[in-house]
Amino acid sequence: MAVAVRGSRGGGGSGFGGFSLRSFFSYRIFVSAMFSVLFIATLSVLFTTNPSTPHHDSALPTTGNAYMRRTFLALNSDPLKTRLDLIYKQANDHVTLVNAYAAYARKLKLEISRQMRMFDDLASNFSNLQMKPSYRSALFESDGPLDEDVLRHFEKEIKDKVKVARLMIVESKENYDNQLKIQKLKDTIFAVNELLIKAKKNGAFASSIAAKSIPKSLHCLAMRLVEERISHPEKYKEEEPSPEFEDPSLYHYAIFSDNVIAVSVVIRSVVNNSDEPWKHVFHVVTDRMNLAPMKVWFKMRPVERGAYVEVNAVEDFTFLNSSYVPVLRQLESAKLQKFYFENRAENATTDTHNMNYRNPKYLSMLNHLRFYLPEMYPKLHKILFLDDDVVVQKDLTGLWKIDLDGKVNGAVETCFGSFHRYAQYLNFSHPLIRERFNPRACAWAYGMNIFDLDAWRQEKCTEQYHYWQNLNEDRTLWKLGTLPPGLITFYSTTKSLDKSWHVLGLGYNPSISMDEIRNAAVIHYNGNMKPWLDIAMNQYKKLWTYYLDNDMEFVQMCNFGL
After folding, report:
1. Rounded to the nearest 10 degrees, what angle do helices 148-212 and 79-108 cross at?
2. What is the pTM of this model?
3. Same-domain check for residues 192 and 265
4. Which partner for 506 in 82, 171, 368, 540 could form a disulfide, CB atoms 3.0-4.6 Å apart?
5. What is the tens place of the pLDDT at every residue in 399-429?
6. CB-based burial of residue 350 (10 Å sphere; 0-12 exposed, 13-18 middle, 19+ buried)?
7. Taking the CB of residue 300, how many other CB atoms lie within 10 A of it?
8. Backbone angles phi, psi at 460, to 5 degrees
């Protein structure tokens, strides 16, 4: 029993060890054989010339693996297929470009809808070309060799589409570049415009300073005249007023100014061009500071040819006080003084509109005397109001002969188109202004106005002026100045005169026709470029200097900028 048992165990042990060794070698041989079979199968697939699957899909492949697979197969199969792949790639690249430009055009919202439709149509044509049955069956779904004639025809159509695509892309690129250029140009124009606006404001501010300041020559003249008055008091004693000052049968003029040389030019120009100068009477009113220089001037240089000159100060008209005159009362208010005197220079250039109204002349009663003519000259029937910056070139007596049809004011209208209408001078957002006046009504000019004082008294125009001036204490009806209240006061009582009587703009407009100037009875240097200033326009200045009294010794001594 024991032997049998050992033999069984020993035989069993040696048999198991031999079986394991053989199994191990058999497994390795089996694995090697399987790898060899797989390798041979892979080679047979890669190098086969007629694959069982179609070479091209019905649509253009979108993955890189598919494209490389076809390229690899084409290189090992048919040269025409390589050519087809290159055509396909070219077409696909241009489709991408076309779609990109179309998307960019939509993003920019350019008004090129026709071009965008062409982009879309071109992209669609590329796709439709490959979907044609003749090309699809012969080129993309064929398992055999490609038809060279069909490929050549397909290539020709693709190249035609590519050519059109390139032309469209070049044109579109120019358009997009132009849009960028236009935007850059707009930015540049905006920046330059900002600089221009700033320069205009600075220029307006500088011009305003030049217009407001007293020239050295004018100051010199006033000082010389005062010195003459002090040195020779016996020559300048007060005289009794001449009866001609109140004679209504003569031609009376009102000139309110503190500028001696300007007043002398106005009077000389009137007298030199009048047919009967001895019938002309000039009523000059100035302020207290310039009363002595004005009197000395006309004493030293009497008006020629028998004309009469009366010189008074505002203070001589005692009824002009703050209890009666609304403007004087308002000028005494702290609010209005703050508006004028707290106008800092650094803020002035940012508010050119209000800067025009912050002028010292609006603080002077001389500027408002024109509303009190009937009370200042109670015995007169008509009077011609002249600014001190005018030059008279013709005889003006014809103005007294014009029938004003019961109107108070005879003036030249200044409106043209939408300019110089009431809407530009009055605040039509205010209900009182909106209800009483027409914003399209034509404005007229101060500077040369013939007033019927009898009609003025009958219409009670001064009372009307007071009514509106009191309402405008907070400057909500109009800004400062005398033209807006004049437009209101004489709204329905102004008669339009022929424009040749009064030509304006010589103080700011360099484009006035010289024929128009020569034909004018009165030329007006309204604006900042007054003829006695260095900033005056040279083409107009000689018309003013022609009437300047150059023989007057003080004019020569003061080098009056001639």
Report:
1. 20
2. 0.66
3. no
4. 540
5. 999 999 999 999 999 998 889 999 999 999 9
6. exposed
7. 15
8. 55, 50
